[in-house]
Write a structure and sequence with these properties.
There is one protein chain. By secondary structure, the protein is of the alpha/beta class. The protein has a domain of 141 residues: P-loop containing nucleotide triphosphate hydrolases (Rossmann fold, 3-Layer(aba) Sandwich). 37% of the residues lie in helices and 24% in strands. It is built from eight helices and nine strands. A hairpin with a 4-residue loop joins strand 8 and strand 9. Helix 2 crosses helix 3, helix 2 packs parallel to helix 4 and helix 3 crosses helix 4. It is globular and about 50 Å long. The N terminus is likely disordered.
């Protein structure tokens, strides 16, 4: 069974998960993707990295995940490197076409050497949370784009990781599906109690999902503004049509225009 999440503390009172401390990343000795990137991630945060193409948002995720090392600076995890594990969701669902939905969600356990039967209950619980329990035996070719992304999210969350990294997971979906998955992601986060870093180009998506929006400029990539979204969770269509949401979107849009000017 999925454990009940711990109550979410207010911003400023949450336990620290990790820090990026003055991180640089240079490719081929010449192209500086990030310069002095600093970021504190606390337990229960939903942080969006918002910025123009080429500002280093995805690079920052890959550094946090350990897929590549920083050129300078440090990434410090509370309790030790990658303490508590992490999950990743990419822009494409990256599902194994020869495996069923349940087998795709089993993959993180399989890589640890855990038999399917041992964790079948956890897999089915997670599929129920994303509304796909009836499709456990289906194959990716039988699913819509939104359903495939739900499988990808279930796979990332099924091991109850400390941190979820999401790299523009809804960018290729139509607006109606995207809004539905935004709603579902917040509901799932509330059920699981995880911490999320989410990369997006969408002002509207970043404001709806996040309690903190970090606006990045490019060449080299760096954070130029941090916006706090004070609206309480859960959020729904009432929030989407509220003056507070409109005001936060205007502030984020202004910051994004500033970022694009900084990158020029």
């Amino acid at each position: 069974m999925t454990p009940a999440p711990r109550p979410l503390l207010p911003l400023g009172k949450r336990a620290r998960v990790l820090e990026m401390q003055g991180v640089d990343k240079t490719f081929n000795g010449a192209v500086m993707a990030l310069r002095k990137m600093s970021l504190t991630v606390n337990e229960g945060d939903f942080i969006s990295l918002l910025g123009p193409s080429g500002c280093g948002k995805s690079t920052a995720l890959r550094l946090i995940s350990g897929l590549m090392p920083p050129t300078a600076g440090r990434i410090v995890w509370e309790g030790g490197e990658h303490a508590g594990d992490l999950g990743m969701v990419f822009q494409e669902p990256t599902l194994m076409p020869w495996a069923t939905v349940a087998q795709n969600v089993w993959l993180p356990f399989r890589l640890r050497g855990t038999a399917f039967k041992v964790v079948e209950g956890q897999i089915m619980d997670m599929l129920a949370l994303v509304g796909l329990e009836r499709f456990a035996g289906a194959y990716p070719r039988e699913l819509s784009g939104g359903m495939k992304m739900r499988v990808s999210i279930a796979r990332a969350m099924v091991t109850q990781p400390r941190l979820i990294l999401m790299d523009e997971p809804f960018a290729a979906l139509d607006e109606i599906t995207r809004q539905k998955l935004n709603n579902d992601l917040l509901a799932l986060k509330a059920r699981i109690g995880c911490t999320v870093i989410f990369v997006t180009h969408s002002v509207f998506e970043s404001v709806f999902l996040s309690d903190r929006v970090l606006v990045m400029a490019a060449r080299p990539g760096r954070v130029i503004r941090e916006l706090t979204i004070d609206a309480p969770y859960p959020r729904d269509m009432v929030f989407r049509t509220s003056p507070a949401y409109a005001a936060a979107c205007r502030e984020a849009s202004d910051a994004l225009v500033e970022a694009m000017g900084e990158a020029a």
